[in-house]
Amino acid sequence: MQLFRLDHFAAHLNETFRVDIEHEKVPFVLVEARPLPSKPIAGMMREPFSLLFRNEAAILFPQRTYGMKHDVLGEFGIFLVPIARDREGFIYQAVFN
User: In whole angstroms, what is the distance from residue 67 CA to residue 77 CA?
Assistant: First the structure.
């Protein structure tokens, strides 16, 4: 299992990631990658960060762990939480700490 850091994702802003939902590859676009405030803790393996993805489907997908794939980062599991809706679709957040 790869330990992702913010820089892994920041290089791929506005790129499409595909999420496996009921055997369909649904596109999610990475719209934000930012660090989260933290205090250094001995043994900390990475600085915490947050990712926001937009999905244009009219359906709200529930919070859960999804299989995600990206052309460069490969395949990995990610816990997505729907946090907002705008004119372009739903926004989902993933937090790494």
Answer: 5
Helix (H) or strand (E) holding 54: strand 49-55
- 28 class by beta-carbon count within 10 Å (0-12 exposed, 13-18 middle, 19+ buried): buried
pTM of the model: 0.92
- State the residue range of the domain holding 81: 6-96
Domain count, the chain: 1
In a domain? residue 88: yes
pLDDT in tens, 21-35: 988 999 999 999 999
